[in-house]
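Troubleshooting log. The previous structure file for this entry was overwritten by mistake, so regenerating from the original sequence record. Sequence copied from the archived sheet and checked twice against the printout by T.R.
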Amino acid sequence: MPRRSIILFAAACCVIALSLAMVTVVVVKMRDAGAGETASEGVASVGGPFQMVNQDGQAVDQTLLDGKWSLVFFGFTYCPDYCPTTLTGLAATKQRMGAAADDLQIVFVSVDPARDTPQALKDYLSSDGFPQGVIGLTGTPEQVAETARVYRAYFQKVGEGETYTMNHSLTVYLMGPDGKFRSALTHDLGPERSAQLIERVMERG
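Regenerated output below.
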């Protein structure tokens, strides 16, 4: 066989071997992550510095995540379905976790700063059936956009006038006590499986 053909054949074999190796790594990571859980290794970073305002009108930043496990998700108070369903589901999740949920806080980031003032957030989060102690965050359009960017969250205004709505990501981000991303909870996971996933990640630290 000519030398050039041998070199081309060897190169092709290397490419195939590398491709198989990459597929194997992805499959293993998906298997290890478990249903509804996203492995944090090898993916783009989630979370980072932000500047916002809480429902009490106080300026806050990413340090509010320090020292506690946090569930962070994006939504808005005029949301007709996903946001209230997520909040009631997280209340049920914390109830199933018992004492393990004592160090778990919920952070609701508004993607609708035009309507979601601190007072509007405070009134909304005090609704019956929602978890107690949820931290609501809002801010200027620029602050909201930057926070969504660092969490790789999507949102978009739909429509005009008073009846407009907001499309947004449905992921709940589980952040560790160091403020770094640990896992993602899919919106259809349910309280029981969510509680199991969170407890499993907590055990790993």
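The longest helix spans residues 3-33. Archived copy saved in two places this time.
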